[in-house]
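Lab notebook page, bench 4
Experiment: in silico fold of construct C2
Operator: M.H.
Input chain length: 285 residues
Purpose: comparison with the prior construct
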Amino acid sequence: MKRIDYVLLILIFCLGCTRNPRITDSHQSIDPELIENAQSFDEISYEINNNPEIIISWDNYDWLTEFDWSLSDGRYYVNPLAENVYWMGNMSPKVNIYKLNIPQDSDLYQIRLRNEHFYFMYQTDGKNKLYPLDNTFYKNILEITYANNYSRITLMLDGYVYSNQNRVGEQNNVDYPLVGLWGNLPHLTEYRAINPSECFYYLEIDKKIPDFAIRSGTYLLKQTGAKQFETISSFPDGQLRLEFIDDQSMLITPLFTLPDEEEGIIGELIMSYNPNYPRFSTEED
C-alpha cells in the first residue's frame, strides 16, 4: 500500500470516530486526482479542512426539535474580555425549536406587541380567522371582522369579544387589510405580512432576555449555510444569525441596531442543550 493511501485510511478512521452521530455522510468525496497526485499528508488534510462538506452533510436538522435549549450570555465567545451577565433560576430564558407546519397558500403575519415581543398567526382562504402556529404561547383561534372601511377590527374568541382595535394611520395594503398598526398603548400591535418560503423551522424564546435587546417570542429560521441559519423577519430588530460552534451549541448574533432612545445590549447569546435530557415528546411535536 502506498504511504499516502495508508495515511488517508488513518485519517478517515479518526474522523469516523469523532463525528457527531447525527451528522450524515455526504455524497461528495475527495477528488481522486488529489489523492493520486498528493505528495504529503498535509495536502490532503488542507483539502479536508477547507472543504468540510466533503466529510459531513447537515441536510437534516429535525433533531433540533428534540431538545430544550438554554440561553446564556455569549459575548465572551467573540471577546474573551467581555463582562458576562448571568441569570439564575426563573430569570433564565429558554428556547424551543419546532418544525413549521402551516397550510399551503396561507397568509402568514408577523405580529409585534409594542417593541418587545414577536409572534406569528396565519389566515387561510376564508381570511375571517387567525390561527396560531403550533406549540407557541398563543394558542387561541380568533375570528376577525372589519368595520369602517377596514379602519376597525373586532377579534372574537369563543363567541366573546377579545379585542376591539382602531387602525393607527392609513391603510397601505388593500390585499392584506390586517397589515398595519392597531390599538393604543400599552397594547399597540403591528401586523406585517411575511413570506415563509424556505423556512422549515422556527424557534421561540419564552421570556424577555434580561439586559439584552434581542426580543422574546417567535422567529422563523432559514438555513443560509452548511451550519448556519438566519431569522426571516419583517421587522429589522427581528434579524438574527444562528451558527453552530459545536455539536451542542449555537451562537446567536443580532443583525440590527437600536434607536438612540432605546436601551439594551446588542450582543451575542449562546444556545445550548444537554443531549442526556431530550424534550418530553408530545403528539404536537
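Observations: Helices lie at 3-18, 32-37, 41-49, 75-78. The two ends are 51 Å apart (CA to CA).
Next step: discuss at group meeting.
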